Amino acid sequence: MNQKDIKTIVKEKYGQIALQSEPAQCSCCGPVSDCCGVDYTIFSENYESQKGYNKEADLGLGCGIPTEFAGIQPGQHVLDLGSGAGNDCFVARAIVGESGKVTGLDFSDEMLTKARSNAQKLGFTNVDFIAGDIEEMPLDGNQFDVVISNCVLNLVPDKAKAFAEIMRVLKPGGHFCVSDVVLKGELPDKLKSDAEMYAGCVAGAMQMEDYLETIQKAGFKDVKVHKQRSIEVPANILSIYLNEEEMQDFRNNKTGLFSITVSGEK
Q1: What is the pLDDT of residue 33?
Q2: How many degrees, rounded to 5, is the angle at CA 8 between CA 2 and CA 13?
Q3: How far apart are CA 191 and CA 263, in angstroms?
Q4: CA distances in angstroms from 214 to 211, 235, 251, listed in the order given
Q5: Is residue 199 within 8 Å of 35, Cβ to Cβ?
Q6: pLDDT tens, residue by residue, 79-123
Q7: What is the pLDDT of residues 32-55, one digit of tens each?
Q8: What 3-state class would DSSP assign to 190?
């Protein structure tokens, strides 16, 4: 698939998710439903203990809790990339307080509508949601103290562009902290090429070493992996794409998916 096709698929998928009457029915990292047919609850983490957590904004689309390691301080301006229904934005808002500000960026109109509705219900005046592409953010440079993202950058076709944009919009001395899905070992071609798996976090994942190298090439310093969690892909998912012999090769080659939470400083 070319980059335009990938973006179209991801945008359509997340538009479908936003319009569902019940949360977390399908996703890059959410549960199974008719719209995707694969269960990705294996990725998500429980937010219920997080201050500022709002159940209506949690669609089960994440693969970590980046705000736990983001070092966000009261009064800061935080940008959340791929903000969805606003889950991480509202957790960040609880940390920055009334004197701070949180901006969510998403390219799904349906998600933006849902996030704005949630913010209005909560009565927040210092959380806003804007439309935009992570590879070409409609934002001025040097304006954010912290950039966060949760299981979104792996869906961006050009990750070098994404991290270059993060570098651009951060203030000098600012930093990012993102949770994302990465790969160790070679993913079988059948998994890589399937569009459904791409919108399910798997086929868009980079090798972990390449992912960290991309961050460093963007100019970030003090790059740290704060958390790494192995994601076991169930046999019933692999069996959709691989025969028994291929599945055994997949296991024996120690190929795996991992959720990592990583930060870097400008």
Answers
A1: 40
A2: 130
A3: 28
A4: 5, 31, 27
A5: no
A6: 999 999 999 999 999 999 999 999 999 998 999 999 999 999 999
A7: 344 444 444 556 788 889 999 998
A8: helix
**Residue 163 CB coordination number (10 Å):** 25
Place of tokens 């949630």: 118
For domain 3-265, give the CATH number: 3.40.50.150
Percentage of residues of the chain with pLDDT beyond 70: 78
**Where do we find the tokens 């509705």?**
117
Look up residue 243 and give its DSSP letter: -
β-strand pairing of 170-184 with 144-150: parallel
| Cα→Cα distances 211→51, 73, 144, 149, 222, Å | 30, 27, 23, 15, 15
The label of the residue with tokens 């970590």 reads 64
pTM of the model: 0.85
Name the strand (E) or helix (H) holding 7. helix 3-19
Rounded to an integer, what distance in angstroms lies between the CA atom of residue 19 and that of residue 114?
8
- The SS3 assignment for 34 reads coil
- Residues 144-166, mean pLDDT to the nearest whole number: 94
> Going by DSSP bridges, is the β-strand pair 206-207/144-150 parallel, antiparallel, or unpaired?
unpaired
